[in-house]
Amino acid sequence: MENFILGFFDFVGNLNFDMLGTFLSFVLVIFWLVLIGWVWIDSGERTSKKSIRITYLLLVIILNIPGLIIYLIIRPSETIEEIYWADLERRYLKFETSELGDCPKCGSQLFPGFVFCTNCGFEIKKKCPSCGMLINKDHKHCEYCGTQVRERAVGEEQYPNAQVMEQQVLASKEHATQTVESKRTKYKTGSSFAVKLGSGILALLDTTKTKLNSKTKAVEIEQVIVNKDSEQTNKGKKKKKNKKKKRR
Questions:
Q1: Is the pTM of this model over 0.70?
Q2: Under 8 Å between Cβ of 36 and 57
Q3: Per-domain residue ranges for the chain?
Q4: Which residues of 111-141 are buried (b: 16+ CB within 10 A; e: fewer)?
Q5: Could you report the average pLDDT of every consecutive run of 10 residues in the chain (248 residues)?
Q6: Is residue 151 a contact partner of residue 138, using CB atoms and an 8 Å limit?
Q7: Judging by beta carbons within 10 Å of its beta carbon (0-12, 13-18, 19+), is residue 43 exposed, middle or buried?
């Protein structure tokens, strides 16, 4: 053990610290240059403005590791490619669900390809007089050939107001409830035999609890009255004893 320790100290004493310092400084310079290059490439993937990229680069050049930490905090969270694909996905979903919606007249759900509402027969699409393609009834121009099909884009039909729509929604809810009740599905809200039996048992338990509570209250009241009577009798006995003592 002593030989190992002495050998270690001899090895440390024979080291050339100048060479070690130059080697470490060389490694740090290489790391610094790689870090600067990575920041330049990463900032280019997140922004297209060169002024902002140069600002990030100077931040890392001047502050080194603390500058890198600051850059990782303030840099944009998404790259340009990620933003592009997210926007493309949003546009695609918007295109796929463009024909999904509710009928503007009765509020029934519409599916892609519907030309008329299946509930009220409201016309949703019509043929373009120029190219014959089905287009939205409220569009001002045909999206296929550009022909003007109407003078204004807003529909001329008198749609129901908010009160009528609210009444229709309530009626549809009542209809759905009746349908569920009649088909005896698992979402049934009516009281079955088991529900009635359970409610009867709960009511019986409630009545027994109230009776027991009333009995316990009556017993407590009787005990209070008895205690008061006993206290009064004890007081009377004490008074009589005191009078007898005074006479003696």
A1: no
A2: yes
A3: 2-85, 100-165
A4: eeebeebeeeebebbeebeeeeeebbbbeee
A5: 66 67 85 90 89 90 88 88 86 74 77 80 82 79 81 53 64 59 46 58 78 78 77 71 64
A6: no
A7: buried
